[in-house]
Queue: 2 jobs
Job 1
Amino acid sequence: MRIIPFQHGLGALDYAVPAGMVLAAGDAVEVPLGPRRIIGVVWDAERLAAPDVPAARLRPVIARLDLPPLAEPLRRLIDWTADYYVAPLQSVVRMAWPSVAFLSPREFTEYRLGGPLPKRLTPERAQALEKLEGRQGTARDLARMAGVSDAVIRGLVGAGTLIAEKVSGDASPPVPDPDFAPPALSAEQRDVADELIAAVSAGQFAPMLLEGVTGSGKTEVYFEAVAEAIRVQGQALVMVPEIALTAPWLARFAARFGCQPLAWHSDLKTSERRAAWAAIADGRARVVVGARSALFLPYANLKTIIVDEAHEASFKQEEGVHYHARDVAVMRGRMEALPVVLATATPAIETQVLASRGTYRHLHLPGRFGGAELPDVQLVDMTRHPPARGQFLSPLVVAALDQTLAKGEQSLLFLNRRGYAPLTLCRTCGHRIQCPNCTAWMVEHRLSRRLACHHCGHQMPVPDACPECGAADSLAACGPGVERIGEEVRRLFPAARTAIVTSDTITSPARAAALVQAVAAGAVDIIIGTQMVTKGYHFPDLTLVGIVDADLGLSGGDLRAGERCWQQIVQASGRAGRGEKPGRVLIQTHQPGAALMQALAKGDADGFFAAEIAARRDLGLPPFGRLAALVISSEDAAAAKAAADTLGDAAPRADGLMVLGPAPAPLAMLRGRHRHRLLVQARRDLPLPAILRGWLAGVALPSSVRVVVDVDPYSFV
Ligand SMILES: Nc1ncnc2c1ncn2[C@@H]1O[C@H](COP(=O)(O)OP(=O)(O)OP(=O)(O)O)[C@@H](O)[C@H]1O
Ligand SMILES: [Zn+2]
């Protein structure tokens, strides 16, 4: 029997099946490996090679584990993913079978506060006592919730402070009612919804792009596909970019279907995660909402996948298996014969091209729901209307904020930069404060009074004197982040109520919900936020959107810079005027003549994308050609460089294939590792995965060097 043991770096191995044991592909098993017992999965023998071992010498499988087997279509999806993204099969299998899959449903002992206080109160214990008030979970869960080590939790259990509670892991999620509160759809919404419903009941592969302007009711419409999946006794998966931002979405779901869907995310407690996994695997969970990691779960009876905000780059996984959840979702739809709906107001170029070729069915919602108009968009030429010295908002934007406040309406200022200032500079010696682990500047966060590296998370207090020359009071904050814009707004409008919305302030779904409630209740006048506020929020009284620095996206220069800038600005603009009052958008730019700015001002998506797509075609860039990146890194600078050179020397040669580099990565050091990059550009008809595998297999590198393969890369740093 051919088995993939869950052991890093190991391929498939053959084992003997003991008499009386029945095994089939997709079964979970326990097998011997050297002196150890490890878990593995039985795989289709014809699809994998294994070392030739005479039958008599094969070691026997120890046991078949009591897990629902991975079904054939999911196995084929796993094969495809591992092959396409040049990833180890077991790493992909582990996304379908996370560790909770192997826990038995009844074995949970959870703990909660309830006993006497411990005699010895260390700072860690005090922190745990404070954080764990009202919480319950396994020792591991509580350690995570309290931000302390497992040992601290075990100590509190030993002291009797945390008391044990047995919990059963197999509670069933509620079943959403497809007919609970269906909305009255507009005629154009109805047409699209009917197509989606027909596709779900047909039960065939149907990739679809649901393109609707911001506020057109895409959510209401794809809810009808979800309702149909429930009606036909199946399951629906809705993938969202970030689970932390789903509070308003969950509320809408509950209003439509009468109960919450099952949310799959990393913050679940072990018992909740186990219960969720089991309910997904046996079909009791009817609607699942989750980020990327929900995609590979073994749904028993999946009928449709919706990818909401399908243009979002966060669907691309940037660690472990570097897959793109949007693309793998479509492939899952093909393997399992079901419709996949990519919903967005600003489709990615890859998606647009597939829709225009007819590979994806293209559904449109061209107008906002309920007669709301798209906002009026104007460029603010910063060279002609510059801000006052030391400030960042043009007088035109300040005047618009003033008018909006006077009308009692709300404004949003969008700047995709967390913190107070992206750079801290010494005015005496010119020193720039850098992260010790990364080629990156430390970003000042004034709310938390720290400097932070946005790449590795390194933090330090803001120094009083320059760390280089020692000059006192010489450090200057350069450039704005949202906190600094917030400060400027409070200085200009002391009576206005402001909210700063970034991943630093919206750290949990509960906080996101509180923000939404505050804005909806009219308790906030001006929101200053990063891309976090642009995602799907609906505030009827928000009528002004100011884009603080539209040029930010023009620089940076990777192949998707223009597209991403367009998406962000259109999504941010899309928050304006969604109710009865008309909206207005002001875009601050130093390059009002740039094609992107002109297209934004005219709302000319077609013109902008026609030019972008033509450029991609001319250069053979995705989706017309394919890219793959190799990132070579090591803590040892010389080893990283040598390995990159070795790989560069061994680079494959073929007609239609171009290898660029090796070159030091723009982020030349990350988390203390020195980095080099190679970029492969290949014609579409070349077998890129096989070429990459052959290349890597032909080169022996020291174990101190790590090579990450990134197929269809989104990050070029
Ligand atoms: N048929 C309908 N009946 C009642 N309300 C509707 C209907 N369609 C849409 N709406 C409401 O209109 C608003 C905008 O809809 P929705 O948020 O679904 O748009 P969207 O296309 O997803 O927008 P965005 O892309 O900006 O997130 C929501 O408050 C939604 O509840
Ligand atoms: Zn860093």
Note: The chain has a mean pLDDT of 93.
Job 2
Amino acid sequence: MPQIQLKKIHKSFQDKRILNDMNLSIEEGEMISLLGPSGCGKTTTLKIIAGLVEPDQGDILINNQSVLNIPVEKRGAVIVFQDYLLFPHLTVEGNIEFGLKMAKVDKKIRKEKVKEMLSLMELDGQQYKYPNELSGGQRQRVALARALAVEPKVLLLDEPFSNLDLRLRETMREFVCSVQRKLKITTILVTHDKDEALMTSDKIAIMLEGEIKQYGTPLELYKKPISEEVANFFGETNYIIGKVEDGIFKSPLGNFRTTLQNTVKLKAMIRPEEIEVVSVYQETNTKGIITRSRYAGDRMYYMISLKGMEIKSISIAKEIFDVGEEVSLRIDSKNMVFYEV
Ligand SMILES: Nc1ncnc2c1ncn2[C@@H]1O[C@H](COP(=O)(O)OP(=O)(O)OP(=O)(O)O)[C@@H](O)[C@H]1O
């Protein structure tokens, strides 16, 4: 039984539909990402789970019980916002124990919890500082400590790394993942960064225009996107039109064995990194001419012209080919995803 279930959630603001029949199930202890472009309704979804926004229709179940009528402080879901919203006039300790004080938790237990959180978040010795005396990463860890101090069932993270510089973002991402695994707390991370979603999550829900278009493991979403819009959101693509005849996909890229039924027209999607550029002397069933070549240290970015098409490839920079050179392309049809035209 999933720990969190969103069932047929609808939400509009001033007649503008933000969430449209949204369904989502999250298992206990999972870390999932809600991934989508700005404005697609990710934050609204978190707020609905936390109880800060009411849906127009639909239900939210936590541990199989509807929480629609349960107030924010009793739902067991806390949000950590992008800008952390720490109380500037309270010390680190004051911030961390805030929720416990509101819940009238005994002082001795509060102090113990603060100590535990300071240690978990590697903030030992920082308890008497004020937020403006902390670094960005420390502020974020205080915000997390404050959220986790009340022992929520669900942790909701709204773009938690977007205010941090690139290096700190990576460190904090690892840190949050390790805390999540240690506590095994069900976590929903909102992000518009596909790499972040791929690297941190057990599952990713891709949200476009207020709907979840696909929900699955990072590997499923990247390798087997169910539609072109999901494929495009997830990275670079090549599309090739062809047809299937007697178990062969016939296309300008060559003929590839497939288990698909005969079709007059079919579109294959293949990621640039699944197209390997090799020497023209190597036998493959596709050849082309390099029209652009970019060196990126460990990788090469190529554009290859063949039969009036431009194909993108990202290859390991073992052998480097120049513009104008004829090359062979090595493609495995296992890595093609087919869509109806
Ligand atoms: N209280 C509100 N009143 C009116 N419109 C709102 C309200 N909250 C959100 N919206 C609108 O709903 C849409 C979705 O907002 P939301 O914050 O959920 O998107 P998001 O996917 O989290 O985007 P971002 O990544 O930019 O935060 C936006 O167009 C936003 O302007």
Note: Residues 286 and 329 are 5 Å apart (CA to CA).
